[in-house]
Amino acid sequence: MQSRPRHQQAPPRLLLIYPATHKLGWVKYFQLPSLSLQQVAAVTPPEWEVTLVDESQDPIPSARKFDLVGITAMTHQAPRAYEIADKLRQEGVPIIMGGMHPTVMPEEALAHADAVVIGEAEPVMARLLDDFLGGRLEKIYRAPIPQDDKLLVPWPRREILAGKRYLTTQTVQASRGCPYDCVFCTVTPYFGNRFRYRDAADILAEIRSFPRKLVIFLDDNLLGDPAKARPVLEGMAELGIRWGSQTSLRFAEDRELLKLVARSGCIGLFVGIESVTGPFSQLAKSAGQSLQADLMKRVRDAGIILETSIIFGFDDHDQSIFDKTLRFVEECSPSVPTFNLLTPYPGTALFRQFEQEGRLLHRDWSRYNHAEVVFRPKLMTPEQLYRGWLEARKEAYSWPAILSRVWKNPGRRFTNLAYNILRKGPNDRLQAPGEDELSSLPAIVTNSEESRCNQVAPGT
Questions:
Q1: Average pLDDT over residues 344-354
Q2: Angle 189-204-224 from CA coordinates, rounded to 5°
Q3: For residue 77, which phi and psi values (nearest 5 degrees)?
Q4: Span 11-65, pLDDT tens digits
Q5: 430 phi/psi in degrees, rounded to 5
Q6: Which of 19, 188, 404, 442 has its CA 20 to 30 Å from the CA of residue 234?
Q7: Is residue 29 domain-shared with residue 114, that is, in the same domain?
Q8: pLDDT digits (tens, 9 = 90+) for 352-376
Q9: Which residue, 191, 189, 178, is CA-closest to 221?
Q10: Are residue 201 and residue 88 in the same domain, yes or no?
Q11: Which CATH number characterizes residue 105's domain?
């Protein structure tokens, strides 16, 4: 399908879609909006009318009243994104796709779209739209790889979220990029191998524009570069806000920085512990002169709710990893422990390794979601990995475990208890696979291996 130039007097109309992978029910009101699509809207020239559809809250409209449709997709969203794209293209409207998955799978995405944005959209969106209106839309728009530590992006357009209900729309991104390049992580391949920060004055001005006090930073590692983060923290300390974000545990080695984080209004942090044994327990982003347990206690004692992410399935993990992890969690008592299954995302070194070793079970991207085993582990079977993960989650959210963690976290006990209760429900609803399901796994593996050559775009 060719892009079509526009000759009407009415302004051109752009539809942006965030696909949903499953129905959320009432939980959708505790979600955060897509910041990436708000950023795309912000760099769209003002003569365009922009509509944002979040499929978790909105039905997909007919594309006929729009001139162009843009769809973003992470890996687990890709099948649904392609389904939407195919349907809307049948209505005669050109489709552009971007985001993590199309960036590493551009040829696959082009089977469902007229153009694909590789990398960050902000540098290329204006040219793409101009090309579209001029009837010269290209198939690939590749953002330049950032070469410095400055992040220059406009404030997101929050007004296009009108009528939608979220936990909050007061989300901010202060930085992008990461120098650690973990083999299982998509951040460095997508955002670059250095921390890039917006100007502190610009970040604080955006925060001052918010009508309420709660702010969520959507950074992958907000405190990754303490020198650049400090001016933001110091400014927030004067604003009386409350905020949460994701970072590495290493920041707590600097006791003065930890004090500043607490004083700036931090109420919660999400950190990656990754593994309690082996090489992935000593990642640069979390390893320093202090033990992880000591750093976790420092954060808890500062009155900050600490959510820790631990991954099961690394090549040094056998079935003993589940008990070792549960004992670690019991000893360190993070406010909210999170257990995930190792997922070899396309575009990562881990995916390439497992592909070369013939260990990928399938390429059903909808199942690349941290909650299903999509590869063959080295020291246990896929069934053993899944069952161990499930049982560890249930034990970590038993009432004795929850109450023990809450008691050991003296600050914000009520909030801590509420978070754990919210997590307990989904964990209680997890079901172990029956014997029939387990016995069918080898057949599933065999079929996926046989069909590997039939995939649309192997390699990512």
A1: 95
A2: 35
A3: -90, -10
A4: 999 999 999 987 666 566 678 999 999 999 999 999 999 999 999 989 999 999 9
A5: -65, 135
A6: 188
A7: yes
A8: 999 999 999 999 999 999 999 999 9
A9: 178
A10: no
A11: 3.40.50.280
C-beta separation of 273 from 333 below 8 A: no
What's 354's domain CATH number? 3.80.30.20
Answer whether residue 267 is part of any domain.
yes
Give the pairing type, strands 175-176 and 196-197: antiparallel
Structural domain count, the chain = 2
Q: Is residue 283 part of a domain?
A: yes
**In the predicted model, is pLDDT for residue 214 greater than 60?**
yes
The verdict on residue 1 lying in a domain is no
Range of the domain at 207: 170-429
* CB-facing half-sphere around the CA of 374: CA atoms within 13 A: 24
Same domain, 417 and 305: yes
* Cβ count within 10 A of residue 335: 26
Please check the confidence at residue 437 and state whether its pLDDT lies above 50: no
- Tokens for 160, please give them: 């296009």
Residue type for 240, please?
A: G
Euclidean distance between CA atoms 70 and 78, whole angstroms: 13
* Residues 449, 260: Cα–Cα separation, whole Å: 52
| Sign of the C-alpha dihedral computed for residues 52, 128, 155 and 82 taken in this order | positive
Q: Answer yes or no: do 39 and 108 share one domain.
A: yes
Distance from CA of residue 47 to its chain's centroid? 31
For 400, residues 6+ apart whose C-beta sits below 8 A from its C-beta are none
Phi, psi of 436 (to 5 degrees): -65, -40
